[in-house]
Amino acid sequence: MPVVTFALGHWVGWAVAWLATWLLHGTLLLGAAWIASLVVRSPGARDALWKTALAGSLATATIFVATKHGVAPPAAEITRRVLVDRAHAQAPLRTALPPLPAPGPVVPPWAPEIALAVWLAGALAGLARLEAGRRRYWRAAGDRHAIADAEAADTLRRLRAAARVKRTIYLTAADGLEAPVAIGSAEICLPAAALAALTSAQRESVIAHELGHLVRRDPLWKVGMEIAAAVLWFQPLLRVARSQMAESAELLCDGFAVRVTGRRRPLVEALGVLAAAFRPRGVAAAGFGDRGSPLVRRASRVLDATRAPARPLPAILRGALAAAALAGTLAFSPGVAPPPPGDVRPAIRRLEAVGVALNAGRTDVARIAPGGFLRLDENRDGRRRELSVTRGADGRALYDYRENGAPQPFDAPARRWMTASLAARR
After folding, report:
1. Do 190 and 171 meet the contact criterion of CB atoms below 8 Å apart?
2. Which one in 24, 181, 274, 325 has a CA-CA gap of 20 to 30 Å to 15?
3. Are 92 and 354 in contact (CB under 8 A)?
């Protein structure tokens, strides 16, 4: 499984790694769901495909980045050196230096920060638009108030019993609302006008449909989908997923309403009465007016007595699909690993030796011939270390050690660095 590592020693590296990994995993899973949905016609199967792709890609990207913590390739080295034969160390050894390899393409150090800033600006703008749309929608709908209609309350109780829904469901109305909606996890809000415009059977079908949204947690999925599309705006497949999930939810809730009421025609009649008022929902609501719910297709499906009402995919099949998606993505998909503990950046090293004999352990200079020298140069993480060893008047080695061009004492840490550098070149 290919792994790319961003060598950044702070949270930017983690954020960029997760976003890049999610883009790869999201494209793979959402793309697979899109292709499968072109063949699979069952609303339950399509709903499971899209939800698995969305939740699965978020999960696999998080697991990948979390489990790859600390995994990074060794620091790249560009080394230039001359091998020394101790048998000829008495005379200056002059060997042509191999050419210094040209460094590969280097990503500018500010590139990840710029990419993260662009993503953050887009995410904040998307969330701001989402919130502005939500406020605009509920301003137009007006205040919600509890429905005092005893018949509507009794209808809801019967439907809850038929669907075996034990939690309390609140039935409200709003004067400016144009279509029924399910809100949060326990509220059905009806347009005040619909209470008078619909017959008892039609109103029952509408309430049953919205109860189906609450049973399926569609308003919560809708909130998550809208936030994901705003925050992860760079993935166009999320917009396809949003539309496909909305259409599948409407078809499944139509099937739910037919099953709990036992009637088909009142639901289609209610669709016709409310059709003129359809418009996209706010991010906290799911209902009749959602995008991706073509009325003709819905009506024909509901009225087709030869076709069983749409049902969700069985739980065991949804679990198997989720497990296969997670396992396959983690096993075969590429990803971007976060930075390991401690910054790892490319190191450029150079070793030049002329007429120099090293000791048996290759950890220090043993002898230097007249005119001989050893130069060791390393540039890592913005810190440049240079060591020049020449022959003194008494034949002993003279050490000139510098850091970032400034002379420094050749103390124990400097000697350890020289020892490690020489030993690494066995």
Report:
1. yes
2. 325
3. yes
Q: What is the pTM of this model?
A: 0.68
Assigned domain for 54 exists:
no
79 close to 422: Cβ distance less than 8 angstroms: no
- Alpha-carbon gap, residue 76 to 54, rounded angstroms: 37
- 79-91 residues labelled b (16+ CB within 10 A) or e (exposed): bbebebeeeebee
Segments of the chain scoring below 70 in pLDDT: 1-10, 69-110, 276-293, 339-348, 381-382, 424-426
Task: Name the token pair of 9.
Answer: 């020693």
Rounded to a whole number of angstroms, the CA Rg of the chain reads: 34
Give residue 8's pLDDT.
Answer: 45
3-state secondary structure (DSSP) of residue 68: coil
Pull the structure tokens for residue 33. 């769901």
Q: Structural domain tally of the chain?
A: 2
Query: Is 376 within the bounds of a domain?
Result: yes
Asked if residue 329 lies in contact with residue 31, where contact means CB atoms within 8 angstroms, the answer is no
Given a contact cutoff of 8 angstroms between Cβ atoms, the answer to whether 243 and 291 are in contact is yes
Full residue range of the structural domain in which residue 142 is found: 121-310
Mean pLDDT of the chain: 81
Please check whether residue 182 lies inside any domain of the structure.
yes
Residues ≥6 apart with Cβ < 8 Å to 367: 89, 90, 356, 357
**In the block, residue with structure tokens 């809730």:** 253
Token pair in block for residue 272:
């016709």
Question: pLDDT value at position 35?
Answer: 94
- Taken in order 310, 316, 321, 322, the sign of the CA dihedral is positive
Question: What are 150's two structure tokens?
Answer: 């005893």
Does one domain contain both 280 and 366? no
Question: Which residue type, as a one-letter code, is found at position 167?
Answer: R
**Rounded distance between C-alpha atoms, residue 117 and residue 161, angstroms:** 51
For residue 32, the model assigns a pLDDT of: 94
220-235: burial string, b at 16+ Cβ within 10 Å, e else:
bbbbbbbebbbbbbeb
Is residue 174 within 8 A of residue 195, CB to CB? The reply is no
Question: pLDDT by residue (tens digit) across 390-404?
Answer: 988 888 889 999 998
**Dihedral angle sign, alpha carbons of residues 30, 35, 40, 42:** positive
